[in-house]
Write a structure and sequence with these properties.
Layout lengths: L7 H7 L6 H16 L2 H11 L1 H10 L2 H27 L5 H24 L5 H23 L8 H19 L2 E5 L4 E6 H41 L1
Antiparallel strand pairs: 1-2
Helix pairs in contact: 3-5, 3-6, 4-5, 4-6, 5-8, 6-7, 6-8, 7-9, 8-9
Amino acid sequence: MSVQDKDPEARAAEEPSPPSARALRRARRKSLREDAVNLPNLLTMGRMVIIPLVLYFLYRGSQFDCYLAAVTFTVAAITDFLDGYLARRQNLVSVLGKFLDPLADKLIVMASLVWLVTMGRIAAWVVILLLAREITITALRAVASNEGLVIAAGRGGKSKTALQMIGIACLLLGYPYHIDLGIVDFGVIDTVHVGRMMVYLSLFFSLTSAFQYGKFFVDAVESKERKQNQGA
């Protein structure tokens, strides 16, 4: 007997039933557990775990402890590059990773900067502006995602991140060091002054990239409204 000859009840009995809500939730939990233990996300979570270690070294405050804080922060910055590279290379890009990666970056940067303010190595107004910029951009991205808008990141954001990481590492060192590369002897360099200069430059790129992102956001919203009006 052909499939067409079968009665509707028989065909319905042979068709697979849709998964239940409980099965879907179980599958999502399993997917999140698998995402949590892949190498890129483990590196990201490791970056979050070592934040207290950086702050502990800063709290101790000796020259050697500040050196350890700078080394630890630099290792975290390297994992920031490495986890994204591995996620793309191994096709392990996940929703959890997209959430954790920027969160880990903001936590370690802001925690370090706030502590450095208490040590007098960076001005509070600089940290306030950087924090306000990050909150604003995060809010705009949330709205854009909710509206289904795709907004490309500007080049200024990448320059901001690089300068910020180098600047914070120098501020964490916090003591003058004699820099001799063999070919060129730079003499004694105050790493706090170098760090401040880098962070000030990163602030410039932070604000310009924020204005650029805001402009892209407004243009995307207006473009979407025009399309909706034309469709109506």
